[in-house]
Write a structure and sequence with these properties.
By secondary structure, the chain is α+β, with helices and mostly antiparallel strands. The protein has 5 helices and 6 strands; from the N terminus they run H-E-E-H-H-E-H-E-H-E-E.
Length: 152
Amino acid sequence: MTKEQLKQIKKEVEEFFEKTTFEVEVEVLPENEKTVPIRINAQDPQVLIGEGGQTLSEIQHLLKSILKKKIQEEFYINLDINGYKEKKEDYLREMVRSIADEVILTKRERELPPMPSYERRIVHMELSTREGVEAESVGEEPERRVVVRPKP
């Protein structure tokens, strides 16, 4: 992705938030494996993040649709507001390490609560290198969840 395209993304994101009347600071970072990280700092982040990050996810989807019309190159965006996703990922990694320890110790499986696909992916990636446990996604959206079990 060129510098001009990154500038265009920043401009479009700034215009989007201006129209919503939210005052935000926008930072567009260089792409990483076809994903463009977009960091937003907002005065009232809870409204933009929503319960469980649902509003954030919907804003990201909306922005992706807008940007897709402006930039023909294939890319993804990763929108984060006031570091919410980063903190959530850290929390998930820590939680799943603790659950893996418990599963290894008790030799009993644990079922995690339903979570969106990007969170399940974090769980699977965290456990992929962990000895003694395996993880599997089960169920149908929106109730899809991860089951952590001891490896036979």
